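S1.2 Input.
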Amino acid sequence: MDASSHIKNSRVLVTGGAGFIGSNLVDALLKQGNYVRVLDDFSTGFEENLVDHYDFQQELSKNNHFDLIRGDIRDESTCAKACQGIDYVLHQAALGSVPRSINDPIRTNSVNITGFLNILVAARDAKVKRFVYAASSSTYGDSKELPKLEDNIGKPLSPYAVTKYVNELYADVFYKTYGLETVGLRYFNVYGRRQTPNGAYAAVIPLFVDSLIKHKSPQINGDGATSRDFTYIDNVIKMNQLAALTPKSEAFGQVFNCACGSSTSLNELFSVLRKELSHFDPEIANTEVTYGPERVGDIRDSLADVSKAKNLLNYSDVIHFEQGIKDCVQWYWNNLK
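S1.3 Output.
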């Protein structure tokens, strides 16, 4: 990543820093010489994602550039403590997954809306420079338009989508009302190192990879023609920092597609993963896919227009699917076997 897009010599709060995306952000920020504080309740994150920076047996940081607060964003005082002395907030904490929100809408609402509002208020009161937050492509809802443009959304298809849209509304209000510089990033199917295949709500790429490594048939929900704009983790790390550093006031209170601008069907995804993994284990080439029912609340097709991010955030040199998936498969082969 271009050094001009690096956050440096700053104090950064990463909420949800023990999660897949959050912990990758933590690693990058620490390598760039920042002080990083993580706020996480470990309800969906993992201690193992932070072991390079924190001794969980002794409950001590391994260096004076890292700090961990075990806490829930639904607690106002915890959020206030986490934001003290912070320059930038990168808010990743949320209860993700469309199916989980359908099964438990009340908890999804309390974490994703009440928790989000708590962090916003704490960031405002602590006078942080910039508040960058994880939005979601689920906000496009039932809109059939492709590619997806930020200002053209449909009606939400799940409780999760509702909560992420409310986040955008709150962030816009906090910029207009209080002057808190907020920037939202609508993540499109992020994948990469540390994304776990375990749990009831695991994402499709780690699930497919895990099945293939074990010589099991992955299941595709639906006919496999469903398409997604799969976005490699390094693109997300880059855009979070670009959003935190942009001098363009037109970006404040706005939301941006965080994606690659290209789409891949689930059938194509399976074929590519099988091919890449068969380089390590030729028997994987014989594995076939199975098909199951479509998931409730899923969007059929997802493809982002990233021109707004290019114009206002200087988002460029995107790592596209072909390269990202090679790097991802290598990591899984080294860590899942």
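S1.4 Remarks. The mean pLDDT is 95.
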